[in-house]
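ok trying again, last paste got cut off:
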Amino acid sequence: MLSHAKRARTRLPPALLAALVAVVLFAPGCRVLHWRNEVSLKQPSNHRDWIPGLDVLATAEFDGSEVTIHNIRNCHYLTEEDYVLDYYDKTFDLTKITSVDFIVVPFTEAPSLAHTMLSFGFQDRDYVVISVEARLEKGETYTPVKGSMQEMELMYVIGDERDLIELRTEHRDVDVYVYRAQVRPEEVRAMFVDMLKRANKLAKHPEFYDTITNNCTTNIVDHINKLKPNLITYSYQILLPGHSDRLAYDLGFLDRRVPFEELKRRAHVNARAHIFASREDFSQQIRQ
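nice, full thing came through this time. structure:
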């Protein structure tokens, strides 16, 4: 999960930073690799004392062209740590899904690292966000190193945009970029269904989160490659997902009618999220 801090004063070149991350985490004899071996006997579980908001797993029930999603998260935040937790179930018509947005949330202290999410849009202007996250226990905090030690389970958080975006723009004070993907509705539908099926699988067969191999971005890539084999090859832009929006642009998933930097400027939603945070039409307003 994303943490916030003051912006770093210096930045390493992406390729060098990727190499350093790999060396620090996995070099022979390094402490993290030793810890990974020590905890290898620990088994993933869905039964721990979870942090509220990460304690309930979302699942999906399919019925023809409709799907009912159970436990859609809808938190109302006063602060990052003080919120009213709510969940609801809702049925969606899969024939009405029309869009998917790629959401990138760079880590303030290390912008080459980021959290990524997908938001699926429907004709009736509903939006559902799927966020692949490390599932934390009470008293536990996320760090990239700890995330590589088989200490945290993986979960698919499914929630409202006003929950998952506002948490970051209003209370963690981090940058959020929302990019409309240039894909056909049938491809969006297939992606949505595949992600919901994976959420169902995780509810029955838990897995460990892994900073390098089983995280928010690698799971999105895996879903895409499952639908279109070998479409995306692994690169530093996946290891360092703060650059994943550039990769999506280069692959033609984003609007290439404008230069990437201009597209990124337009995708930055913080200013409008601040203005329209309390509005019921939040999702529509941040896309104006």
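cool. The radius of gyration is 18 Å. The chain has one domain: 14-285.
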